[in-house]
Write a structure and sequence with these properties.
The complex is a heterodimer of chains A (about 290) and B (about 375). Chain A is mainly α. Chain A has 13 helices and two strands. With about 375 residues, chain B is of the alpha+beta class. Chain B folds into two domains: about 240 residues, 3-Layer(aba) Sandwich (Rossmann fold), CATH 3.40.50.300; about 110 residues, Nucleic acid-binding proteins (OB fold (Dihydrolipoamide Acetyltransferase, E2P)). In chain B, the strands form five sheets. In chain B, strands 6-7-8-3-9-10 form a six-stranded mixed β-sheet, with helices on both faces. In chain B, a hairpin with a 2-residue loop joins strand 4 and strand 5. The chains are: A mainly alpha (about 290), B alpha+beta (about 375). At the A-B interface, helix 8 and helix 9 of A face strand 6, helix 4 and helix 6 of B.
Chain lengths: ~290, ~375
């Protein structure tokens, strides 16, 4: 066999190595480095072992923001998934309504996140914002900057407005891939509208919904920009979600060690939940 | 035991005669010419318990017709009668029909058992009734061993059996319709499933309508084949009738392999004049005012002779069982089918047409 041995092709891989190293591996290793050490700036480090991890895991502040984060993610998933599926089911399947609906649905997704936060901030201001002013004028005592319930309400409403479209678009794609014969067969079998949803549409949407849940879980669990602009975590700590708290600890207090430990724990929680969820959803696929 | 069988047999006897009257359908809101119609003036009378096939190429309107009979589509014009009762405005459930689609339609998340039981549950049958029906049908379709498996795990032909079973499980079905049900099935299983269908038809004796573009499937399954072309029924008949006496040039082309030879000719004094010779036929032709007149003869019914029409032999292909001879005359190409042992002349030859199977066609329809 006359095969020319030439290893020069490896040079092509180098740019990828460099890129991945600089945008993922090196920063992550820096964080890992920080999480085991104490620093007072000027590049002076002292070894602390697992102290920061233990501290974070026992810290009430961490428990509180993790709890807020979990409740927030849970609520928005609970609203956005059924709402998204429902909107997708009611969207037209043909005609001029299709592009109109698709464009309207994509609009919130195209707006930069900090703009969404700023928009909702102004929109919800109790004195001059349309939403805040209207709510107050019809008799609700609404002020998202001072009352924590109102702050939660506004944050959730903003996230629902911003991200339900994603679930809608994914569900709509899933629904459109169902062959008409399934509906015809169901009609002949005498299935009710609920049966059609339960036994045809939902199973056929399973894959896109798995994707939607994963994306919405990750994005909402790591939400930062919008609440940062809207409430800044307030009033008090009411909407101080995990990533807001993390940034406060790292950049506000400059507690680099504990913040690094917290980000690693944060990262592992997201990874773990995604993995468990994905394996559960795909368990049946593998069997068949 | 006998009593049990008696009940079971009477169960199957609820059937219907199907009549279609002047049925036309268009998918467009306004129709300007014939091409805008998917179906044009379809009239059909189908008896109880027959096996019928709708045969035609893609786009000829056969699936449209099927969906109109099942009630999934409302016809633009005309009416549908089941046992002389007008069902034109009724939905599929009210019509009590079953339909099996091109690819298997199953409920993925249900077991095979639940799939088969689903149409019965929706009709409010008791659990005991459902159980006995489902088991009976599963036995018939050889699905008994997989009843508790998830339906999504089955092979394509297993899934298609479930689709079939969901239609058969209901005893109140007026008609069972098949829309090219073997398209996704492996060739070696096609034969098995097709014989199964035929066997089921004989066993349960219910009206079955089978849509296909495959002439072999249609001819082996059905007692009566309806050939469709551009939204119209061009001929209804037994496989033998379709072969021996095509009423339309399309039937001549479409059925048979190779199809009928159709060549331009003239009509003089009630007789066919072809290539300067008079072709004898069994009928005398009276009407002559056609814009196009053709003569049709199947390749099977042409023989070599000492005199007759002169042709040039172009090519001979031997398939083993018979020889297909491509010849050329002034009016066009003529295909001849001869047995493998036939001596084929080379160069030029004379051929004669069998009088019994020579037909004249005016504007594509047979002249009688």
């Amino acid at each position: 066999m006359n095969k020319t041995f030439n290893q020069k092709a490896w040079y092509f891989v180098i740019p990828v190595f460099v890129l991945v190293a600089f945008n993922a591996a090196v920063p992550l290793m820096t964080v890992v480095n920080y999480s085991f050490q104490e620093t007072f700036g000027s590049n002076v480090f002292a070894w602390e072992g697992t102290r920061w991890f233990k501290e974070i895991l026992h810290s009430e502040r961490f428990h509180a923001s993790l709890g807020r984060q979990a409740i927030f993610t849970f609520i928005i998933l609970l609203i956005q998934l059924p709402l998204g599926i429902f909107i997708a089911l009611t969207m037209p399947k043909k005609g001029w309504g299709v592009p109109v609906c698709l464009i309207l649905m994509s609009m919130p997704l195209l707006i930069p996140w900090n703009v969404v936060g700023a928009m909702w901030n102004i929109f919800a201001l109790p004195d001059i914002g349309f939403l805040g002013n209207s709510l107050n004028s019809i008799g609700f005592d609404y002020n998202f900057t001072q009352q924590s319930g109102d702050a939660w309400f506004t944050t959730i409403l903003m996230d629902v407005w911003h991200w339900t479209s994603l679930v809608v678009l994914l569900s709509y794609a899933g629904l459109n891939s169902i062959q008409p014969a399934y509906y015809q067969a169901a009609e002949i079998d005498g299935a009710s509208r609920w049966d059609i949803f339960r036994y045809i549409e939902l199973p056929k949407m399973k894959k896109v919904l798995t994707l939607a849940i994963l994306l919405r879980f990750m994005d909402s669990f790591m939400i930062y920009t919008e609440p940062f602009v809207l409430t800044g975590g307030g009033p008090g700590n009411a909407t101080n979600f995990l990533s807001l708290d993390l940034v406060k600890m790292a950049l506000g207090q400059f507690d680099l060690g504990p913040a690094a430990a917290m980000s690693l724990i944060y990262f592992l929680i997201v990874l773990l939940i995604c993995w468990i969820f994905y394996s559960l959803m795909m368990k049946n696929e593998a069997r068949t | 035991m006998n009593f049990y069988i008696l009940i079971k047999t009477t169960d199957w006897l609820i059937m219907a005669k199907i009549t279609l009257k002047k049925l036309s359908h268009s998918y467009l809101a306004n129709q300007n010419n014939d091409a805008d119609w998917a179906l044009r003036g379809v009239d059909i009378d189908w008896k109880d318990g027959g096996a019928y096939a709708l045969l035609g190429p893609s786009g000829c309107g056969k699936t449209t017709l099927l969906n109109i009979i099942s009630g999934l589509l409302k016809p633009t014009e005309g009416e549908i009668l089941f046992d002389d009762k007008d069902v034109t405005t009724l939905n599929p459930v009210e019509r009590d029909i079953a339909q099996i689609f091109q690819f298997p339609v199953i409920y993925d998340t249900m077991t095979v058992y639940d799939n088969l039981a689903f149409p019965l549950k929706n009709r409010g049958l008791s659990d005991i009734e459902i159980d006995s029906k489902v088991k009976e049908i599963a036995e018939m379709l050889e699905l008994s061993s997989t009843l508790n498996n998830r339906a999504s795990g089955l092979t394509a032909d297993g899934k298609q059996k479930i689709s079939l079973g969901r239609g058969l499980v209901r005893s109140d079905v007026n008609v069972i319709m098949f829309d090219e049900p073997l398209t996704v099935i492996d060739p070696h299983l096609k034969w098995v499933l097709r014989s199964k269908l035929k066997e089921l038809h004989q066993k349960i004796n219910r009206t079955m309508i089978y849509v296909t573009h495959d002439q072999i499937e249609a001819l082996t399954f059905a007692d009566q084949v309806v050939v469709m072309h551009e939204g119209q029924i061009v001929q209804t008949g037994t496989p033998v009738e379709l072969f021996e006496k095509p009423k339309h040039t399309f039937v001549g082309h479409f059925i048979g392999s190779p199809g009928m030879n159709i060549l331009p000719c003239e009509i003089k004094n009630g007789q066919i004049n072809f290539e300067g010779k008079v072709l004898p036929t069994n009928t005398s032709i009276k009407k002559t005012n056609f814009s196009k007149v053709q003569v049709g003869i199947r390749p099977e019914f042409i023989n070599f002779s000492n005199d007759g029409i002169q042709v040039k032999i172009k090519r001979v292909s031997d398939t083993g069982r018979h020889k297909v001879i491509d010849t050329e005359c002034k009016s066009g190409n003529i295909k001849i089918l001869a047995s493998s042992s036939t001596e084929i002349p080379t160069g030029s030859a004379h051929i004669s047409f069998d009088q019994k199977y020579t037909y004249a066609y005016g504007d594509n329809w047979i002249i009688e």
